[in-house]
Amino acid sequence: MADETSKRTLPATSWAVLGLLSFGEELSGYDLKKWSDRSLRFFYWSPSFSQIYSELKRLEKAGYTSSRMVAQETGTRDKRVYRITDAGMTAVREWAREAPVDPPVLKHGPMLRLWLGHLLEPEQMREVLGRHQEFAEQMRLHAVADAQSAQDEPAWAYPTLTLKWAERYYASERDLAAAMLDDIEALARARAERPADETLN
Amino acid sequence: MADETSKRTLPATSWAVLGLLSFGEELSGYDLKKWSDRSLRFFYWSPSFSQIYSELKRLEKAGYTSSRMVAQETGTRDKRVYRITDAGMTAVREWAREAPVDPPVLKHGPMLRLWLGHLLEPEQMREVLGRHQEFAEQMRLHAVADAQSAQDEPAWAYPTLTLKWAERYYASERDLAAAMLDDIEALARARAERPADETLN
DNA sequence: TGTTGCATGTAAAGAGTTACATGATTAC
DNA sequence: GTAATCATGTAACTCTTTACATGCAACA
């Protein structure tokens, strides 16, 4: 209920936040940001705090969540916790089952640089790829750690599968960088043998 | 020259468009969109026409490109073609060499769905992954085809390397989907043997 | 005393998309 | 005739981030 028309027009990020609540827990905006950083982040980027708060407002307006203030015994500022409603559960289930799946979007900063290899020194290309290997390995390790802390919770079975996917994804990213380092070496050797082609760089 | 302060603040998309021009060709906005679809798209999404036109305006204002109108002999509407200036070449080289590399950003629609597996039927998960496999394979084939049409052009050596990277990347995406299909089967079997855990779904 | 973590939110700006408008040419 | 391709651009809108504001508690 509440605003029926907004149902179809919610952006994917709203559904992601509602999805986080669909596991049944009562969470604050702050909690949601943390959960998001440990799950969504590996395959769907993590929204900023401010966006999470505005998504929560939108979801509540749509009747998909309800909230209440909780006084903190320890003395810190009171917090507002959110819970998914029946209408929200119905809506997110319907979205998950019926909405068209958005194609994956990749904005790969390191590749954008290497694509402009004619403007770089070979050493700079190696550095970009080396840093990317480290980044990918770090992400892989975080995915492993987060998957471990969720294991054996039946409710988290599918999130755990996506973390497993992420672990393999970042392992592949790391290996793809290594393969490209080899390709760059091969290209540099070929150019050294036949240096007539130096039209650019 | 022109607005020195805008140099550092240009968004990555501006640099991507300027990068497209850094290979030396004189191109129209329409051409740039096509080039973008055959290269950037595989690792950095392709901006819309309207954004390309506004980026070109911004780049010209910054003094990084110059343009001229060209009358079409065949009778179609006149077009405006853009060329990179010396200042633009200097700026894009400096950006490529010195600006911090943005970390890769992934928004993986199919994984967002599967992460909400508790809201889906197993059949729907298989369908999402099956479609994703097809998507990945199509992207891989496009990357192969585009790499082939650029081969042996020494100026396109690095773009060709990134297309090679893309070919492997999409092959990996395809294989990762297959691995996840197996994981889902294994999970379904485990649940069938021990159906006590049906707390959700 | 200063930093980190918890906790929530507003305001402003920028990035990027979709829809729309226009109009000629070519191929079916 | 009508669909597709070439070709450029504006307007409105949405998404998303950054910077800022506020304030307590624990810890070093």
Present the secondary structure layout.
The structure is a homodimer.
Chain A (H helix, E strand, L loop, with lengths): L5 H4 L2 H10 L5 E2 H9 L3 H4 L4 H13 L3 E6 L8 E6 L1 H13 L6 E3 L1 H7 L6 H29 L6 H37 L8
Antiparallel strand pairs in A: 1-3, 2-3
Helix pairs in contact in A: 2-5, 3-5, 8-9
The first copy, chain A, binds a DNA duplex (28 and 28 nucleotides) through α5.
Helix/strand-derived category of chain A reads mainly alpha
User: What is the CATH homologous superfamily assignment of the largest domain in chain A?
Assistant: Winged helix-like DNA-binding domain superfamily/Winged helix DNA-binding domain
Number of E strands of chain A: 4
* Strand percentage of chain A: 5-15%
**Helix-strand sequence of chain A:** HHEHHHEEHEHHH
The shape of chain A, in one word, is elongated
Q: State the end-to-end distance of chain A.
A: 62 Å
Largest sheet of chain A: 3 strands, antiparallel
CATH topology title of the largest domain in chain A: Arc Repressor Mutant, subunit A
The poorly predicted ranges of chain A are: 1-7
Taken together, the total number of domains of chain A comes to: 2
Estimate percent helicity of chain A: 55-70%
Gyration radius over CA of chain A:
23 Å
Protein name (chains A, B): PadR family transcriptional regulator
Organism (chains A, B): Streptomyces caledonius
Pfam family, one (chains A, B): PadR
